[in-house]
Structures are given as structure tokens and as C-alpha cells.
Amino acid sequence: MKKLITILGIDEEICVFFRNEILKIFGDLFEVDYRNRDMEPLPPITASDLILYTDPEMHNEFISIIKCNAPTLMMKRTITREALRKIKSIPPGKSALVVNINQYMANETTALIYQLGVSDVTLYPYWEGKPTYPDVDYIINVDPRKYSFLPPINAEVIIIGHRVFDISSIIDILSILRVEKERSEEIIKNYMFKVPSFLHGLQSTYDNKSVMAAQLNILLDQLSNGVIVTDAADMIEFANSKSVEILGIPMDKLLNHSIYSLFSGNEKIDAILNNKELKDELIKYNGNDLVLSMKSVERENNYYGKIIMINPYYEMINTQQKIHKKIIGKGYYSKYDFSDLITNDPVLIRTKEICKQIASSDSTVLLLGESGTGKELFAGSIHNNSNRKTQPFVAINCATLPENLLESELFGYEEGAFTGAKKGGKIGLFELANKGTIFLDEIGDLPLNLQGRLLRALEEKEIMRVGGDSIISVDVRVIAATNRDLLKLVEEGKFRHDLFFRLNVFQITIPPLRKRYEDIKVITEHYLKKWNKMRHIYNDFQIFCNNYKWPGNVRELKNVLNYMTTISKSYLAFDNLPDYLRVRDYYVNGKHTGEELVLKLIYYGNKIGINTGRRTLHTLFNKIYYEISEMEIRKLIDKLSEDEKIEKNIGRDGNSITSTGIDFLLNNNYIREEMDYEFEDKVKNAVKVF
Ligand SMILES: Nc1ncnc2c1ncn2[C@@H]1O[C@H](COP(=O)(O)OP(=O)(O)OP(=O)(O)O)[C@@H](O)[C@H]1O
User: Fold this and answer.
1) What is the mean pLDDT of residues 387-393?
2) Domain 223-312 matches domain 338-509 at the CATH topology level
3) Ligand 1 mean position to 558 CA, how many Å?
């Protein structure tokens, strides 16, 4: 229903004039009624939203018929720009009578003309019945038809018409009758063009305010946060376009609606809104997680409304992630793809194929395998081949942190959750991994308490931060890995059986490296090529590889290769293995006794012309290979001699290699055609020392 304005005027004509003015200015916003002296009988005012009167006399006169408690407002009035232009055309130094119906109105009009900046014309107020008047050059009259009581002066008459509403009255009316902001602004803007305001500051203040408001609107619309501003009655006065997008509510359903009605039915938000100030509260709105901050605007104990900021929870997380990436230079992602997974092993090839197939499903994967077998490589490749590949891949080793730290690392915590908790709380890995994959390595080491929380996260797809009470939805694919026998842990009561079954949807077992010796060669070649460190691989290195159990699996192999390629630019052989691996048991087996290593020493010794007697060989062997007794060296020398690979020379030069011996070394890849100067130097240095 339209709001009703009632005008109290001196006569029918002035009432009709103002009624038309109101209809002209406010369009169809209001109904207009009036009362005046001409009315007989004078009906009481029983209902109205606003009562306007032209001067205090009117108000006093009609007070007895006001039978409702509508607000009353005296119209501040002014003249039109056109009328002011006419008055300003009076030459300076001249004088004029300002005519109006009574003394109050005449004085008021005169004061108004002065206030509007007319300073060089002398004005005299004049009204009906005023006994004296000066001789003037001009008569400024409101209405020639009505005010026929002009004094008999031969002066030029300027008609200025009835005074119209001053802009301040328009603003008052709009505000009292709570006209919606945009409409109000439009009305004010249009009206300002038509009338000059006697309140000098108002126009410029309003202009400044409009410019500032426009700038503010642009600024707020640029923000990535939703911003809502309410007035003292908690009605939404302003909402930026981001808030429309976040809440999914059109602008016209936001503006001029109570902030409470917007969130009605949500007790938590109600409680939040009743606070004076709140920061980063997590709320659920239409199934979405939003972070809401709010501040009441108060000055000198007056309440002016609220400023509310809203943000989609996951947009905040993404921003955090981006910043995190920038700060630490890497994001939560995996660099792995199935093409990084090198194998010739039929079992592993098959496993790789299965993983490629299950990658695109969202199901949980349980990877079983010893440390360094490539569980993370599998997990990362699965993620990067899934629909989640553009989302985070977050890996954590459940065995490396104490329980409470692991808990807050996984699920995050709220500010003040415990002593030392960071201000603003901390986001957990589950939240960071939202829409992506979390890789829980060493899941068998997850404490029981956290197993329960993990199960809930998997089943409900919801988590709660440590010390928090809000539920946060998470959409995370879990890939878990362990080297431990989970079933045994279940039997021992150390692993929840329900969690085991929840994780054990796709079980993938990766065999250790010692069960796929063939892979050592291809993986070695792969990394040498990848690192651009091509080396000649001697047979004694391969013998070692096949003897050694590789407890650290591929990780250890990579480390060993890294070491060996650093210390030798030309070859990989038993002699340039790290110290901890140059051990007799890692070389000697039924087939290999170490005689080829002695033979290689003799070959190089002969080349560089050093003594290759038993003693020297013993020392060299101990330095370059592993610990061995002189007795054993003697046995090996005897065997080599028996096989005619060497000739035992009694005397200063020691033993010399035969062509059979050289062929043996060449054919079995213990030496190659070109010399290995690094090995030669090694032998030279070893001899020098003693
Ligand atoms: N088949 C493979 N081909 C090439 N590189 C591999 C292979 N398997 C593992 N690797 C490499 O070995 C290293 C260890 O692998 P990864 O970290 O995936 O092992 P893991 O089983 O997760 O180990 P842990 O359980 O100790 O965390 C990585 O650098 C990985 O790239």
C-alpha cells in the first residue's frame, strides 16, 4: 500500500499546488491528501504517514484535527532556479519589495532571497495590511492573481511563483518514509537540477557524497568478498555484487530487507548477528560453507547498523593455497605420472595398469609396500590421472609426528584451541586437500584416536577442527599406504577394523626391489639418462646389485646412483659404491669369489707398472674393495694362476695378467677397451700411501 502524505495549507490553491508538486517530484510513490482553511467542515486526520505544513501558524491552527501520531514536518521552501535568475537580473544598488500573504511568509521569502546569494539589492518584506513601505524599483511577487494588495508604487513587478520544496525537505521526506536507496538518489538528483538550495553546504556535500558513494560502489564491487551494510534498523542498505553471487539472492531481494529475515531459521547466524563484532565465523548457508565477519557501527553510543563480510570458505582456502605456493615455491601437488614408474616386472606392470584404470574412480586406495618402493609415486600418478588432477594433492606421513601435532596438522585447529595455537587458527590438510587427494603414508602408525576421526571424515565427508564446533564439509579422496601388516594390527586391536575395511577398497601391493632384480637395471638406466649422467656400468656393480637386499628399495638405489655418479664421471663399479656397501657379503656369492676384482687390480697394476705381488694386492684390495685377509688373496691368486689368467712371477714385479685373463675381464665386462683413468688414479693413489 502507498504511504499517505497530508498537507496542511492556508487555502485550497496552495494545497493543490503542493499536492501537484509532490506528485511531480515523487511520481507514484505516495498518496497525497490535504486540509486547509477553506474546508467546511474540516475532516480530522485519522491516518497518515507524514503531515507536512507550510508554516508554524498552520501547524498550530490544525493541531486539534490531527488524530493520529504521524510524524510532522515543516516544509522548508525555496524558489526555482528560474525565479532566482530573474531576481539576480535586478541591477546592483536597486531596491525591491518582497510580497507575500502574511508577515511570516514575507519575512521568510526575503530571508531566502538573501540566503540564495542576492546581496546587492535592498529587499523590503511586504504583506497585506502593512501600513508603510518605501519607494522601490522592483516588486517581487509570488502570485499576481492572488496578491492584489500591492502598494501603489510605480515599480517593475517580478513574478517568482510559489515557493517550492527545498531539497532538504525532499531528503527528509524520503528518509522518514523509508524510500529505497536507489529511488531516493534518483529523485534527489533530478530535483537538485531544478531548485537552488538555501542550505549552501548541502548541494556540495551531496555532490561529494554522490561521488564518494559511486567510488565506494565501484570499489566494493571489485572486492572478492561479499559486503553487506545495514542501517540502524538492520535493514540492508547496501550489498555488493559479490554478496549477491555468494548468497545466490538477487539484489532486489537483499536491499531493504532485514538482515535477520535473510538468515531466518538459522539460529547460529542469528546469534552471530546479535554480537557487536565477530571475525571469521564459519556458517552454513544453503548447504555452502561461508566465513562471516561482522562489525557493528557505533558512535557515541548510537547504533548505525552493521557491516557484514562474507566469503565462500573454499575460495579463502584457495587463496591461502596460492599464497602458500608463492611463499614456499611449491604447492600441494604431485609431480608424478605413471610414465615415471619404471619397471620390467610383470607383476608391477599389471599393477600399474590396474592403477591407471582405478585412477578416475573416486574410490579409496590402499597401497602396500616397503619404504621406497614407490607408494607415493603411485599415489601421485593416480591423482594426476584422476578428475581431481587440477586440485591439491596433499601428502603426510602419519608416523613422523606426535599424536596431537598430527591431529591439528590433519584437521586444523581453531584460535585458542590450545596453548600456543596460532592466532586465527590453522587450516588442516583435509581442508587444504578439498576437492583433491590426501595421501596418508604409514597409515598403520595412525593413533587409534585419530583413526576414529579419519573414519568419520571418510564416511561423513565432514571434519571438525580441533577446539572448534563447526562442521566443515570436505570432498577428499584418500589414498593410504603402509608397510605394516594392517590385518595383524587389527587383530592386535591397534587398528580399527571398520577403518581397515573402509580403506581396503582397492588394495595394491608393490613388491620390494629385491623381488624384482630385473628392475634395478632399467631403473638405473632410466635415472642415468634422466639426470644426463651416462656412465659405463661394470659387471661388478651388477653383481653387487643382485646380491644386495636393497632395504631402502628404489629410494636407496637412487641415492646410491646419485652418490656414484658424483664421485665418478665415467663408470659405475663395485669400487665406487658408498663405504657402507663395499662389504664382502654384498659381493661374494656362490658364483663370484672376488677373483675378478683381484685380476682387475693386476691388469691395472701391470698397465701403470707397479709391483703386483701378493702384499701389494692385499693392501690395494683392502683399500679399493673390502676387507680381506692375505691368506684369501693368496688363494685367489692361486686360482687365477691355475686358470692361466695370470702368471705368477717370482721377483720384484709380482704377477702379470695373461691374454686369457684380459679376455676374461673384457668379455665379462670388468674392464673395457678404453682405459678408466679414474680407476687408474685410484690404484696409483692407493699405492702411494704405503
Ligand atoms: N618404479 C619406479 N621407477 C622409478 N622411480 C621410482 C620407482 N619406484 C620408486 N621410485 C622413486 O623412488 C623414490 C621413493 O619413492 P616413493 O617416495 O614413492 O616411495 P614410498 O613407497 O612412498 O616410500 P615411503 O614409504 O618411505 O614414503 C622416489 O624418488 C620415486 O620417484
Assistant:
1) 90
2) no
3) 9
